[in-house]
Specification:
This protein has helices at about 5-10, 15-50, 55-75, 100-105. The protein is built from 4 helices and no strands. By secondary structure, the protein is mainly α. It has a domain at about 25-90. α2 packs antiparallel against α3.
Length: about 110
């Protein structure tokens, strides 16, 4: 790499702006990680006590884990799209039936050896 090319790369403003966004999203990922851990613990406790999972926590867990994935895609340069709050918050597709999803979790414990 020539010195001029290196200087040009180092002074390119867009990469520094992306670096700031990467720092912001690294912080937001840490927050999402805490939310995901809390959802997992709460979902476990609710399942333990009631015998079924909470649909609202299912949705939150799905959204938070999808958001974390979007952050990783951005941080690793696999995506140029900035995640929330610069794009919509991830949610389940309208085609996905919540009832089917929660029924599967409630009734099918065979994969857990239960």
């Amino acid at each position: 790499m020539e010195q001029d090319e290196l200087r040009e790369n180092l002074t390119e403003g867009s990469i520094w702006i992306r670096g700031l966004f990467m720092l912001l999203f690294a912080i937001l990922y840490n927050i999402a990680e805490i939310v995901i851990a809390a959802v997992a613990v709460l979902q476990f406790l609710i399942r333990l006590v009631t015998g079924s999972v909470n649909d609202n926590l299912l949705d939150l867990g799905y959204s938070a884990s999808t958001y974390a994935s979007q952050i990783f895609q951005f941080l690793t340069f696999n995506s140029e799209e900035r995640p929330f709050p610069f794009s919509p918050w991830p949610s389940r597709d309208a085609d996905t039936s919540k009832a089917d999803s929660s029924d599967k979790h409630d009734d099918d414990d065979s994969h857990l050896g239960v």
